[in-house]
Amino acid sequence: MSLNSTYGTVKPSVVNIENDVEIWYNYRRSRSDNDIANATFKRGDVSVMFSKSFVQDTELTDIDDKTLIGMYNLTLPVSMFGNKGIYTIYIKPKEYFFTIKDVGVLSAYPDTSGIVIDLSGLPNQSFFGNGNLVGYRIEYFEYKNNGLERQEYYRLVTSNNKCDPVSQNLTSAMSSSNGYRFNDSGSLCFLTLTPSTSPGFKANEKPYIGAPNQKIGITNTKFDPVMIEVEVVEHDIETLSIMAEGEMLRNLENGRVSYYNFDGEIYKQFEFSTVKDNYTTKSVAELKVNKDGNIDTSLDINELKDA
Questions:
Q1: pLDDT tens-digit map of 222-242
Q2: Is 139 exposed, middle or buried (0-12, 13-18, 19+ CB in 10 A)?
Q3: Is 50 exceeded by the pLDDT of residue 174?
Q4: Parallel, antiparallel, or unpaired for β 283-290 and 102-106?
Q5: 157: exposed, middle or buried (C-beta count within 10 Å: 0-12, 13-18, 19+)?
Q6: For the chain, first and last CA: distance in Å?
Q7: What is the pLDDT of residues 204-227, one digit of tens each?
Q8: Measured on CA atoms in the order 177, 160, 118, 92, is the torsion positive or negative?
Q9: What's the CA gap between 275 and 271, in Å, rounded?
Q10: Would you say residue 1 has pLDDT above 50?
Q11: Which pLDDT score is estimated for 111?
Q12: Are 271 and 289 in contact (CB under 8 A)?
């Protein structure tokens, strides 16, 4: 994960796994699977699937944090990714949804406009503490023909502070807006956005930053979304190599053929037999039966090799 910063440099991102990351995934039995139910993405458990990476040591011995910045581990639990098929995993910045409570100005600075959101329903209000949302992206939803839809335009947060409303008579160009003052004990949050100032040639025109009761999404910009495709199969390179290059033992008494892994253990066993015609006793086919449920261990390959 990386963060594009000032002057085009790239900085490895430092994220809070619980607050900054969300993971979605879907499953298909095959690439030709058109099952609509499987096309729906499900939310993954970030606390289980995502974790930090650490280094063994650091040049600065007085630093206790051994985190390898920008590198994170992805774990795929068998309970979620245990079926054979194709999984599409989408790792993205976590998004928080709000309804704009008001579009107002600061009472002490009437020319400073912003949007106001209500934090009272959040389980972790400290995450939205003063200044914590600087650089976050605001995306807007509007009702269209098909219902509530995400719009193309967005704004960036330049400051945020808890606040409460102030009853006052405003005399600025934003005189129709409500006034707010900063209050660290308030349950409302005042966010200033960019762009929010009017162009020089249209002094009375304000860029759109939202409207009361409009749905918005607030997302961090710490890293770019990542899509990973994982195909879960029954065999991998090692198991194929076992069948092609591994040791084999054929029991001539019962027709059992055993294939051994690289630790000398039976990996697969098949029973070969000849099928004959009942009337002419002519051989018509050779039968190969998987005996995984009834393994014959009467012959030890290690003893035979040492004999």
A1: 999 999 999 999 888 889 999
A2: middle
A3: no
A4: unpaired
A5: buried
A6: 57
A7: 677 889 999 999 999 999 999 999
A8: positive
A9: 13
A10: yes
A11: 82
A12: yes
Burial code (b: 16+ CB inside 10 Å, e: under 16) for 75-99 equals ebeeebbeeebbbebebbbbebebe
pTM of the model: 0.77
Q: Can you read off the two tokens belonging to residue 117?
A: 């959101």
User: What span, in angstroms and rounded, lies between the C-alpha atoms of 250 and 271?
Assistant: 9
Cβ atoms of 246 and 101 closer than 8 Å: no
For the beta sheet containing 283-290, the strands, ordered from the edge strand earlier in sequence to the opposite edge, are 248-251, 256-260, 266-276, 283-290
pLDDT in tens, 263-278: 888 999 999 988 888 8
Q: What are 266's two structure tokens? A: 């039976």
Domain residue limits, the chain:
2-94+226-232, 101-213, 237-306
243 token code pair: 């069948």
